[in-house]
Amino acid sequence: QVQLVESGGGLVQAGASLRLSCAASGRTFSYAMGWFRRAPGKEREFVAAINWLGGSPTYAASVKGRFTISRDNAKNTLYLQMNSLKAEDTAVYYCAVKRDYYSGSRVDEYDYWGQGTQVTVSS
What we know:
The chain is mainly beta. It has strands spanning 3-7, 10-13, 18-25, 32-38, 45-50, 58-59, 67-72, 77-82, 91-98, 112-113, 117-122.
């Protein structure tokens, strides 16, 4: 069983940066991990993902060039560095684990989910 706890969300102004963390317990070393988000009134959407060794990061077009996903397998932690935040980045951000070496971008590919952390960007 895998448990995920996100942290690092908050209220910031447009243009600011935040770093989200996701602490995992259980076996995640050989699994891909990702970040998703749900904005008010919208479906959960893909943000970024990374494979089990920390390579081949993939990003949604809306965040590419601004967000960076990384992982530290020794610490069992996933990160999302978010720069140049925009009001449209406001959402609850979720960490997820896919029981596969390689990541994907669909919600239904992921097997474990955290409770989420709120990110609010004021314009």
